[in-house]
Amino acid sequence: MSRIGSTKRSNRSDVLSIIMARQPISRKQVAELLGISPAAVTNIVDELIQSGLVMEGDFGEASIRGGRRPIFLKIAAESGLVLSAVFRLHNARIAVCDLMGRVLSSQEYDQTFTDMEDLMTTMVPDMRDVIRQWGGQEKFWGAGISVPGTVENDRVRNSPELGIEDYDLAGVLGQELGIDICVDKDVYLSALGENWMGAGWDYSDFVVVTIGTGIGSAIIIDNQIYHGHRGMAGEVGYLVTGSDSLTGGPYTMSEFGYFEKAASLRTLRQQTGLSFRQTVNQSAEDETLRQRLFQNADQICLGLASILSMLDPQAIILHGSYAAAEETVAEYIEKKLRYLTPVSCDIKFSRLGDQALTYGCVGTVWQKKCQMQFLPRH
Predict the structure, then answer these.
(1) Global pTM?
(2) In the chain, what are the domains?
(3) What is the tens place of the pLDDT at every residue in 139-178?
(4) DSSP letter at 66?
(5) What is the full DSSP assignment across 287-329?
């Protein structure tokens, strides 16, 4: 009995995943892609339509043998809402999104919060107001919350930036807001956003490396974020890319790791006195800046080569402020990686920027409520 129920739930998740990735798509196409009977697909689709997750759209063309014209299926994006919230001390924001991640309203915070208590005091009442303004709790499918730090099962284990440890953020917000809460690490949610709507949507196995003030990463294996034993997978800032690390530590969770100290844009800014974008823009005419930029790229490549050799992904996606350097450094990085390791993959630069976090916040609600995957589009 439980085995049958488990199979049905799995088929439901698979059907929903295929519709999400390939919409608009017919029932027949879904059945062919999944290798299950058309009758089973019809039953599942009827259930999904009744639940408000899927809707019928346009008619397709009839086959050359005649018969009924197929009806295409798509996600019912407007049937529910998701609250997205980015918790951080600088540039925090909240947004109301439809089920496809389209932002319907947003509020950004120009102020710098002093700590988690200060952030919660300001943002939680605003989140309650937004929920009320958009029709109340029954309209919301849930909330996706992004935090800097380590998260395990929706609980913040450690966030040096927010100054919290072992904090039940999902429980606190669930009581305050009265809707389902999904919490995860910011770099993981950026990767999920890239998986769903960005540079990762053609891949099932890839790594997103976020390069900014620090360096972090997220590993996607078979369209799922790999969290690791304690939710710390992807802490590439602690990669050791030089022997001087043996005397430069110890490296702790409250400090920058060796790779971050060697390759982050914070280090580059200390060297140039300019923002990263200024360095990139002026490097074409300033040979000293150009040398600094490519020395930084060399340090980044040492870390990327280690990631590539260990994980053999289909792609590495460079995310964060470093994406602004694509035109200047993309070819150089690809060439340097070919020199450093025989293992190859596609090197992509994110085009979503911070929007990836918003998609990720919506996407994590989808995944946790429906156990679905964001499959490659092709």
Answers:
(1) 0.89
(2) 2-78 (1.10.10.10), 80-191+356-370 (3.30.420.40), 201-351 (3.30.420.40)
(3) 999 999 999 888 988 999 988 889 999 999 999 999 999 9
(4) B
(5) HHHHHHHHHHHHHHHHHHHHHHHHH--SEEEEESGGGGGHHHH
